[in-house]
Amino acid sequence: MVTAVRSAWREVPPHQVRRFAARAMEEVPALARDILREIRREYPQLPLVPDEFGEPRALVGIRQSLEHFVAHMTVGLDRPHIHPRVFQEFGRGEGMQGRSLDVLQAIYRLGVRLAWRRLAEIGQQVAIPAPAMYELAESGFEYLDGLVAESVRGYAEAAARQAGERLRLQRRLMEQLFAEAPTGAGRGRGYRRPGAAAPRHGPPAPVAGTFPPAPASRPSAPPLAECAARIAWPLPERVAVAVLLRPARDAVAPAVADGVLLDMECERPRMVVPEPDAPGRRELLARAAAGWSGAIGPAVPLPDAAKSLRWAASAVDLMERGLLPTGELLQCTEHTEALVLLPPEELIEDLTRRRLAPLERCGPTHGRRLAETLLAWLETRGGAPEVAARLGVHPQTVRYRLRQIRELWGGDVDDPDRRFELELVLRARRLRGELG
């Protein structure tokens, strides 16, 4: 059996409650001014923002909160509180100004303390019993919690709006960084060396896989420096661009450090890393991207960010084809051979067909062994013992294979250009896993 909780406030006669509420309501305007004056004395930095009628919003909020609380007393303290919406605006204003809610909550507590002091005096005047006043005080603190919750709601809304605006401006900045300069200009859009004349070229051509430039009919984008200033991003001398592969659709974004631009809206998220050669930067990036696969392009001057993006995207293409390892953030500069030899697939395949045509006379297994021996010989330019050690076979076996190679290719193995082409196609086959 559940026993009903006894309410001392309910036991106060209704006429006495109405008398208490009437006196309190009469004093609300003066009490609100006194509270605001005391708050201004304790917190002189508090801005007084006027409403559409020229009255300070803070005074309006204090007066409304007092009126609502006094009206609440007459309907029963167990009823849900009604909180003025203006307190959401207070929280929203703190968020828009980049301040925390600590001062605002301290101001609320000060206001409640001052209001309670006056309500306690009125309670004595109309002989409200002490237990009922204690219950009223408890209700007052619940009301304060509700005011704080309203402000937190407004603060969170402002924070979300600001975060969305920052992301929009950040994407616009990255769009400008990735828009390559016109041929021969050597600089990215919106960037100009101090003292240099403005280029007289038309709009840059779009980079594959990035945003196209705005149509000519649209207003021109603000300069790069202006875009960067709007998100407080200091323009670095050099950058590197990373392209990522999502481990899952709902994967948590990498916890990048301040200053690293991150665009998660793309199918392949992208990062712009300022001053990538700074001490410890590589290790920080590796930790931030833990659990992600991707590649970071070479460090380039800021106007050449699109070039770093191209190399990173090319490396990720190879990762998706299984030609580069996944599970970490690869450095493109450590995989130069693969990035140079594997992407131009059609050209390499055509050169492979022409230069390795002699192997068509051999069976698959013997042809692969001859190709491996030829590559080892081209890379070492040593004798049979050196090549044999590289391949793990007997020197006599190498001599036999080299004689066959000379029979198949003839003088091509002595021509520098042909040797270079043979090494290119054989290295490409090794990168694709076709040679040991």
Task: Give the SSE layout.
Elements: H1 14-42, H2 57-75, H3 86-96, H4 102-125, H5 130-178, H6 224-230, E1 238-245, E2 261-263, E3 270-274, H7 281-288, E4 293-296, E5 300-301, H8 305-320, E6 329-331, H9 336-341, H10 345-355, H11 364-380, H12 384-391, H13 395-409, H14 416-431
Parallel strand pairs: 4-6
Antiparallel strand pairs: 1-3, 1-4, 1-5, 2-3
Helix pairs in contact: 1-2, 1-4, 3-5, 4-5, 5-6, 10-14, 11-12, 11-13, 11-14, 12-13
Describe the overall structure.
The radius of gyration is 37 Å and the shape is rod-shaped. Residues 181-219 have low confidence and may be disordered. A hairpin with a 6-residue loop joins β2 and β3. It is built from 14 helices and six strands. It is mainly alpha-helical and 436 residues long. The longest helix has 49 residues, at 130-178.
How do you describe this structure in short?
By secondary structure, this protein is mainly alpha-helical.
